[in-house]
Amino acid sequence: MFLIRSLGILGIAGLLGCAGAAPLRTDAADRQTAAVTSIVPTLHERIHDTARAQPAVVDPGPPPPASRVPSDAVVLFDGRDLSEWRSRDGGPAQWKVEGGHVEVVAGTGAITTIRAFGDCQLHVEWAAPDPPADAGQDRGNSGVFLMGRYEVQVLDSYGSTTYPDGQAAAIYGQYPPLVNASRPPGAWQSFDIVFRRPRFNERGELIAPARVTVIHNGVLVHDAVILTGPTSHRQRPPYGAHPDRLPITLQDHASPVRFRNIWVRDLER
Ligand code: MG
């Protein structure tokens, strides 16, 4: 609401600014950019703080059947092949497709969509390795990167703790999930993500930050949170101007995480 209200006020301010002479328009544009940039949150919690409260555990119930695909969705993976994906080096995606799912092959690198997206609704199903290996950040780690920059964490957080801003469904390094709605390793889990990309003006300045809503296994875990910038390990870097449409990336973090039933609705078409 704050964002929408702020943008509304700024929109009016922008219209008023347009009524003046050219230098005033520039001043108004600069003030608008500064004001919008100022709503990028400053997070006071230390990044990756293991001492902060763990999100409450919520039992989401057993996995439902694989979700149905809306008629206007782009199917990115239907269990058969990786024709919509490639390796980050541009070559064929090297992950293993079998039994209606695709599994990370450690060391082959991230895979990324051939198509590019901005604002979107993304559905991803994933399962952590069973039996689990290792602990913390090495336990079923992967990730869904919107625009290749903004990560919704994939991790086995069922009965396993790590720093809350890096557990399953965290916006990595920025926001722990509201609750821990994880299913056990081996069970299919789902992310339903509504992503609004950041906006930049023609000078490459941020005029609206990215926002993300995430539903994990049917449970709301992020409610239109405002991203501070790209997600990263041990740092919260500022926004850098980038294209309006970029590929979606799945992370190779050396864990044999499985994915299935991936589809996306383009909200800018
Ligand atoms: Mg990850």
Characterize the structure shown:
This protein has a single domain (57-266), classed as Jelly Rolls, CATH 2.60.120.560. It contains two helices and 17 strands. The chain has helices at 2-18, 22-38, and strands at 56-57, 74-77, 85-87, 96-98, 101-103, 111-113, 120-127, 142-146, 150-154, 179-180, 189-196, 199-200, 206-208, 211-216, 219-226, 249-250, 258-266. Strands 2, 4, 5, 7, 11, 14, 15 and 17 form an eight-stranded antiparallel beta sheet that branches. A five-stranded antiparallel beta sheet has the order 3-6-16-8-9, with no helix packed on it. A two-stranded parallel sheet has the order 1-10. A hairpin with a 5-residue loop joins strand 12 (199-200) and strand 13 (206-208). Helix 1 packs antiparallel against helix 2.
How confident is the prediction overall: mean pLDDT?
90
SS field, number of helical segments: 2
CATH fold-level label: Jelly Rolls
CA-based gyration radius: 20 Å
Describe how the helices and strands are arranged:
Layout: H1 2-18, H2 22-38, E1 56-57, E2 74-77, E3 85-87, E4 96-98, E5 101-103, E6 111-113, E7 120-127, E8 142-146, E9 150-154, E10 179-180, E11 189-196, E12 199-200, E13 206-208, E14 211-216, E15 219-226, E16 249-250, E17 258-266
Parallel strand pairs: 1-10
Antiparallel strand pairs: 2-17, 3-6, 4-5, 5-17, 6-16, 7-11, 7-17, 8-9, 8-16, 11-14, 12-13, 14-15
